[in-house]
Structure to design on (383 residues):
């Protein structure tokens, strides 16, 4: 097929405009593994038309059950696991060596199983305060120490923090798939950093202290411990109205691969809905990602107990399908084993199941059974 000179010029101009307006995301780790680079590339490609659905702790436990291989509440309802499985590094510190060892073994199994099935792993870190470990990860007035200043270089607990990161790094190296390769993970430390409920939150450290902590964490894992299978995700809560407010404690484009937001408040928490505001905040994240060459995601959301039986399509899907929004995944929170009310994904018999199946069947959403081979990179035509 022959192209005229004018058509070739037009296509070249269009390509240049796309490159200028929408830079292709690049990982901040130049030594990232081939599989990690492929995952990042493929999530970027898929986000142009789709969003992956995720659920925290989906395959570890669910509503009324725990530790059953191959099970998830989402699979029991839809026939497929979520595309994204959330795990947590909370068990890697603040416990006995035996307990830490058990936590590592469970994490290795969950993470490698997800990878072997073709799914994606995202890692939260409800990090026990190293200075006052008896207070856990929440901030408790008059008891919890403002620890960030003590963890950064020069701080009283800096050496201990490096030991904790060494545990994280060893898990990253040891967790491998059936192909023997280290499993790529979306690592999301210090989430909801703009709130005050965690010890790393905005009221408990300065902007400079927080960004130093973030930058040291990435640098030590990547450059000192040679962890090259992490995608680093930055995810404040929804306490912003503008891009400048969103970026208030952003550590810089050289230190972040994925930008996200945790937002329950605008999507029905306590019966309060402000979906338009939630969409506007997601748009800030999506627009910044495209401008800065990052991935974007809706890193946490959900409606506890799902009393709104049309929430999946009338609220969540409506937000995700806003024109020109590009989000790589959305993750809802966990289903507690014992609590009759603390759950965020449906299980058989739950009232929102019919609407969730409509959400599942929508062409925009991807579950594990829908995924292409995410850990192999293919060439894709621009036109």
């Amino acid at each position: 097929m022959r192209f005229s000179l004018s058509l070739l010029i037009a296509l070249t101009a269009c390509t240049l405009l796309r490159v200028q307006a929408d830079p292709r995301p690049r990982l901040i780790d130049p030594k990232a593994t081939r599989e990690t680079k492929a995952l990042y590339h493929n999530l970027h490609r898929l986000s142009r038309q789709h969003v992956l659905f995720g659920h925290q702790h989906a395959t570890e436990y669910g509503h009324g059950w725990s530790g059953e291989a191959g099970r998830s509440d989402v699979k029991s309802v839809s026939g497929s696991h979520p595309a994204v499985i959330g795990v947590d590094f909370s068990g890697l510190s603040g416990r006995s060596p035996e307990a830490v060892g058990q936590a590592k073994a469970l994490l290795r199994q969950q993470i490698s199983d997800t990878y072997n099935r073709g799914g994606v792993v995202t890692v939260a870190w409800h990090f026990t305060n190293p200075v006052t470990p008896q207070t856990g990860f929440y901030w408790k007035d008059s008891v919890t120490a403002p620890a960030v200043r003590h963890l950064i270089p020069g701080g009283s607990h800096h050496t201990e923090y490096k030991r904790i990161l060494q545990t994280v790094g060893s898990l990253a190296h040891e967790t491998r798939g059936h192909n023997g390769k280290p499993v790529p993970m979306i690592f999301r430390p210090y989430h909801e950093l703009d709130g005050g409920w965690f010890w790393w939150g905005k009221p408990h450290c300065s902007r400079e202290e927080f960004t130093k902590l973030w930058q040291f964490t990435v640098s030590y894992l990547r450059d000192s411990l040679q962890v090259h299978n992490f995608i680093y995700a930055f995810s404040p809560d929804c306490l912003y109205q503008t891009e400048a407010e969103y970026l208030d404690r952003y550590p810089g484009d050289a230190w972040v691969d994925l930008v996200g937001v945790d937002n329950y408040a605008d999507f029905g928490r306590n019966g309060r809905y402000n979906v338009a505001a939630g969409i506007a905040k997601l748009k800030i994240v999506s627009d910044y990602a495209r401008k800065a060459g990052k991935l974007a995601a809706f890193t946490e959301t959900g409606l506890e107990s799902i009393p709104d039986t049309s929430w999946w399509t009338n609220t969540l899907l409506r937000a995700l399908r806003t024109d020109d929004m590009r989000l790589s995944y959305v993750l809802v929170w966990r289903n507690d084993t014992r609590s009759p009310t603390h759950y965020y994904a449906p299980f058989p018999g739950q009232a929102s199941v019919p609407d969730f199946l409509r959400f599942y069947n929508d062409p925009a959403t991807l579950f594990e059974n829908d995924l292409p081979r995410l850990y192999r990179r293919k060439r894709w035509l621009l036109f």
